[in-house]
Amino acid sequence: NAGVTQTPKFRVLKTGQSMTLLCAQDMNHEYMYWYRQDPGMGLRLIHYSVGEGTTAKGEVPDGYNVSRLKKQNFLLGLESAAPSQTSVYFCASKRIGGAQETQYFGPGTRLLVL
Amino acid sequence: GENVEQHPSTLSVQEGDSAVIKCTYSDSASNYFPWYKQELGKGPQLIIDIRSNVGEKKDQRIAVTLNKTAKHFSLHITETQPEDSAVYFCAASTYAGNMLTFGGGTRLMVKP
User: Fold this and answer.
1) Measured between CA atoms, how close is A62 to chain B, in angstroms?
2) pLDDT higher than threshold 80 for residue A98
3) Among B1, B43, B97, whose Cβ lies nearest the Cβ of A106?
4) How confident is the model at residue A8 (pLDDT cuts 50, 70, 90)?
5) Is residue B109 classed exposed, middle or buried when 0-12, 13-18 and 19+ CB atoms within 10 A define those classes?
6) Does A105 contact B45 at a Cβ distance shorter than 8 Å?
7) Cis link prior to A107 (omega < 30° from 0)?
């Protein structure tokens, strides 16, 4: 099993450009998450999904949109990138159940917005 | 909502020494506290967790303690090795919760 994979690994955008980050998991997990990681601020939740066709806002959702059209995929979109969105983005997934179910993280996507 | 603070932000120890990382949380309803380790260029990985019905849990060289009254929990690594060098994150949630609130992270450096 590949676990959680993220595409692309690294991207440079100009302010105002758009892009989509792809997360895929092959563990048949119900829940999927998008986080951003900034120095000294840990991991902050952007959006999450508790199942195919459902999404919900996390702590820092502004400027991002998500879609979960297939159970194994969770897409994160930036419609008009801003320098403040320069960060490392992590996707995670877990089985259905409470917080004690382990979240499995992907390797991350490093995004630089100029 | 929940707020988790983590200290120190960086920690440097000599190989073989012990390392302690501390976290405090704000929501008294939180009852599940995992710790994640992030190696360079990789995503975080769960290393140990503790639930509010226990005060301490050990797994080889790693232990976690919880003080629910004071709302703080700590990660203890004994006999540190160079491969323990990484960024460590604490987190908090409720059992029924679907979301984890993470601390700011601690960069641990173990010097040979």
Assistant:
1) 18
2) no
3) B43
4) very high
5) middle
6) yes
7) no
